[in-house]
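User: Can you recover a sequence for this backbone? Please restate the input before giving your answer.

Assistant: Of course. Working from this structure:
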């Protein structure tokens, strides 16, 4: 009986095995095909995907000419120098450099970039840095030559090449911040000279972190660049930059106007184009500029007479020491618009006090954009 009972148990086990194994086999088979289907629908990412992503950008930048906007500032020049060093290309400038930028190049023993009209040839690939507005692109550059844009400004009326291009825009305080990050993300360390140049550009564009455009990312990048450039006191360097920028004693009113001059094209509610010129002069010594306000107004009025397409022209005098600004415009119509959108704290003759507005990108241009869009 024990033997029969034992055989019966074995028979029961075999029956149980068959009952369980068949559905379990089916479940496992279904699970296998499900996993196979999921795996096949995933994008195939080759080994070294990070390197592929970097190469995708780098390929467009290889042997390119890197150039900033017309009437270049320090960020525009230093970004071009750094990009040319990083990607292997040629740095160029789209205008004369100012006294602050000259101080930076002298301090870190960097050569002045070539003029863009001498550098660009038929068939040249161009990378725009620190701008995307079509009106700020040097006239020697054809839109179809542009392969890449690296910028920190909003898309206003960007250049329109006939073919797709690479565009890298980030809402940070300077284009130099973006270029410095590209070095680090590509496991590259900029030289002391290039790091110093980038550092100065970030400090200049963010007004030593006092501009409303400043981000924590800018501050973090500056810390890393300062170590590489062997700068122990960043604020001291920033003060030297602002002193160099304030050296305007040998500049004519026309040179002052064009020093940091940009043109913008807005659309009104009827989709008509409104061309506005907006210049900025930054200084730690505001009174000498205020004393020349009538001279500056005369030059602005004359410039507008010569360029009939410019419907409004403004000049902001920015006091870097006190973070205050003053606005000049020769036209009563332009003045009425400024009073409406900026609501000046006070008006002294032709000079409007705009309080603590200091950023063209974030505080001067957006109100104009919104105003014209609503008219």
């Amino acid at each position: 009986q024990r033997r029969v009972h034992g055989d019966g148990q074995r028979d029961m086990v075999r029956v149980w095995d068959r009952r369980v194994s068949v559905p379990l086999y089916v479940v496992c088979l279904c699970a296998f095909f499900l996993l196979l289907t999921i795996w096949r629908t995933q994008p195939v990412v080759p080994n070294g995907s990070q390197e592929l992503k970097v190469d995708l950008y780098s390929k467009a930048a290889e042997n390119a000419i890197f150039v900033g906007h017309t009437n270049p500032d320090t960020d525009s020049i230093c970004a071009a120098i750094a990009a040319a060093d990083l990607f292997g290309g040629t740095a160029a400038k789209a205008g004369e450099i100012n006294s602050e930028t000259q101080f930076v190049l002298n301090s870190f023993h960097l050569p002045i970039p070539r003029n863009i009209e001498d550098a660009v040839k038929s068939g040249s690939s161009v990378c725009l840095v620190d701008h995307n507005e079509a009106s700020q692109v040097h006239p020697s550059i054809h839109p179809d030559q542009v392969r890449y844009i690296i910028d920190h400004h909003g898309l206003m009326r960007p250049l329109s090449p006939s073919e797709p291009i690479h565009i890298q825009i980030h809402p940070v305080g300077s284009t130099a911040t973006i270029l410095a990050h590209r070095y680090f993300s590509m496991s590259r360390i900029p030289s002391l000279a290039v790091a110093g140049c980038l550092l100065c550009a970030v400090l200049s564009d963010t007004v030593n972190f006092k501009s409303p455009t400043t981000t924590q990312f800018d501050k973090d990048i500056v810390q890393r660049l300062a170590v590489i450039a062997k700068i122990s006191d960043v604020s001291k360097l920033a003060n030297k930059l602002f002193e160099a920028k304030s050296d305007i004693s040998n500049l004519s009113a026309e040179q002052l106007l064009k020093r940091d001059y940009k043109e913008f094209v807005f659309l009104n509610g009827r989709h008509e184009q409104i061309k506005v010129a907006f210049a900025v002069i930054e200084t730690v010594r505001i009174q000498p500029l205020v004393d020349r306000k009538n001279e500056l107004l005369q030059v602005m009025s004359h410039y507008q007479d010569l360029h009939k397409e410019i419907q409004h022209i403004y000049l902001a005098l920015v006091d870097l020491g006190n973070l205050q600004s003053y606005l000049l415009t020769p036209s009563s119509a332009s003045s009425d618009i400024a009073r409406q959108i900026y609501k000046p704290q006070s008006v002294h003759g032709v000079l409007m006090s705009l309080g603590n507005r200091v950023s063209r990108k974030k505080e001067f241009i957006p109100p104009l954009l919104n105003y014209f869009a609503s008219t």
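That completes the design. The longest helix spans residues 2-41.
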